Each structure stands twice: as C-alpha cells, then as structure tokens.
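Sequence in, structure out.
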Amino acid sequence: MKPLFQLSTRKYDEEIMIVKNAMIELENKCKVKNGFTIKEPSMMAGWAFFDLELSTEMLSAIETSGMMINAQGFGFTEQLKNFIGHYLETKGSNVRIKKIDY
C-alpha cells in the first residue's frame, strides 16, 4: 500500500507550487520517476485540503538512502510523516501534514 498524506493550507495557490517543486526535487534526489501524486484539493472553511501519495519506489528510495535517520517519531509511519513535513518546511512550505493511510 502506498503512503498517503493529507496536506492543508489557507494559501493553496502559493503552497501547491512550493510542494510540487519540493517533491520534484526529492524525486530527483531519490532518482525516481513518477514518485508522487498530488490529488485535487477540497475547500472547506477557508482551508484547502489535498492528498499527497508517494509511490512504492519513492518510499523505498527514501527508506534505504538514510534520509530519515534524524526523523523523530514512534514507528516508521510517524517518522515518514515527520520527514516529509520537515522536508517541505525546509523548502518554504507552511502546509500542515497528516498521515491518513498506509
């Protein structure tokens, strides 16, 4: 099963470009093609919610590369969520991230 995260923001038009560019950069670091999918947003009460899905190849590359060594969390799924969240933050994103499926 592919990891699925829900991202939320109040500034979707700005954040979507930052998230896409950051994930493309992560894809290049992992040497993976089609490593992620960003789903269409849903709007509610001024917030935009959209899903980010990682491919199994991208997940494997992240896991085996040692990128997650300093990721905090109990268990692999929480560490992965924290790694993705921190990675997006270092690229200038202010989205909130929530793990919704694995």
